Amino acid sequence: EKGGYKHFMQKEIFEQPRAITDTVRGHIDLDRDKLVFEEFPLTKKAFKKIEKIWIVACGTSYHASLVGKYMIEKMALVPVEVDLASEFRYREPLINQKMLLVVISQSGETADTLAALREGKKRGAKTLGICNVLGSTLPRECDYVIYTHAGPEIGVASTKAFTTQLAILYLLSLYFAKLNGKLTEIRTFLEDMLRLPHQIEIILKGAEVVEKLAPQYGNAHNFLYLGRGIYYPIAMEGALKLKEISYIHAEAYAAGEMKHGPIALIDENMPVVALVPKGETYPKMLSNIEEVICRQGKLIALTEKNCKEIGEKANEVIYIPSSNPFLKTILFTIPLQLFAYYMAVFKGTDVDQPRNLAKSVTVE
Ligand code: M6R
User: Which residues line ligand 1 (CB under 6 A)?
Assistant: First the structure.
């Protein structure tokens, strides 16, 4: 049932090209340069009435929500607020009938997420679920549902559910941008999406580059993950993966915050994983990296070809294929999943069933 793989998590990481293809297929009509969201029909007029979008979730789905905020705000220019479900439900959120509540859950059974959904409904918001499990509770209770077609996810660590959530959020952002009159040319964005599964395959084919890091770094007790902008939640997701299956403490920081505290932690025993895509934040990340290096921190950098400076500075470099900044978040995620996986295998932990964790958290 593991199809020749050692663990479900490994199988699920390697299934991502197919999972993404299956998830986006029904939504892209390239012949007509159109996005199709039959399960969430919205007119321009109805969309204009939405004052604010909320996204609520837990764990990995929460990290997808944070990426979704960057995508929607940047492309569609609508304000988005993101909350952890367990916080939202107890903080009397100022949500009302003029707002849309998007609830994200792989399982559709997470107790806090369901409670947040009910709270939002009670306050009159329209609700949209993004879910991977057909017939689970979440889709039954939402006004609209969009499914990720990742297929069953067995490993407790969420992998393909996350990247398919990002794929849906990307298409949804384009859909909102179009409805809001903020996007004239959509074709390149759709073509980028359709190229993505193959780009993931390229990263997966080079998995041994990541695998060989495990014996070198497997004895570290703490890791710092750094990213900026839309890559900050990707750093958070990378840190969560490492914690949950290898039991190594890892913390993610928005790189600009380093100087406000965490820089005190850096020495030769604290490896740093830095996400350094090309683009606006590149020079800033470079200077953060300098700060790590001059404190003898070991640096694992994820970057793109032609970013020569990084190659010269970092101890390890992992190259990611290029795409638009939104979709690159998916590509940068893959090596982080692989890294957590190989570190856990190196440490001999129970990869698919890490201690103290359940696949879906149905208690509050
Ligand atoms: O099924 P859900 O997406 O609602 O689950 C939310 C979290 O419990 C889940 O993402 C958890 O954080 C994973 N173990 C992370 O890998």
Answer: 58-61, 105-107, 110, 113, 156-158, 244, 360-361
CB 53 within 8 A of CB 100: yes
Q: How close is the Cα of 106 to the center of ligand 1, in Å? A: 7
Atom of ligand 1 nearest to the CA of 241: 16
d(CA 57, CA 65): 7
Task: Please state the pTM of the whole predicted model.
Answer: 0.97
Return the amino acid letter for 255.
A
Mean model confidence pLDDT for the chain = 96
- For ligand 1, the distance from its centroid to the CA atom of residue 104, given in whole angstroms, is 10
Catalytic residues: 359
Q: What is the pLDDT of residue 51?
A: 98
Q: Which residues of 40-75 are buried (b: 16+ CB within 10 A; e: fewer)?
A: eebeeeebeebebbbbbbbbbbbbbbbbbbbbbeeb
> Which atom of ligand 1 has the smallest separation from the CA of 60?
10
- The strand pairing partners of 304, in sequence order, are 320
Q: Which pLDDT belongs to residue 54?
A: 98
ipTM: 0.99
Per-residue HEC secondary structure of 133-194 comes to: CCCCHHHHHCCEEEECCCCCCCCCCCCHHHHHHHHHHHHHHHHHHHHCCCCCCCHHHHHHHH
Helix ranges (H only) for 26-96 are 44-48, 59-76, 85-88
| CA of 59, closest atom in ligand 1 | 12
Q: Which of 107, 114, 159 to mutate to test the pocket of ligand 1 (most atoms within 8 A of CB)?
A: 107
pLDDT tens for 140-178 read: 999 999 999 999 999 999 999 999 999 999 999 999 999
pLDDT, position 363: 85
- How many Å lie between the centroid of ligand 1 and the Cα of residue 183? 33
Look at ligand 1, atom 9, and give the residue with the nearest C-alpha. 59
The three-class DSSP label of residue 299 is: strand
Q: Give me the mean pLDDT over the 99-120 stretch.
A: 97
CA angle 200, 282, 78 (to 5 degrees): 75
If you take atom 4 of ligand 1, which residue's CA is the nearest one?
105
Q: Record the tokens describing residue 199, joined without a space.
A: 């780009």
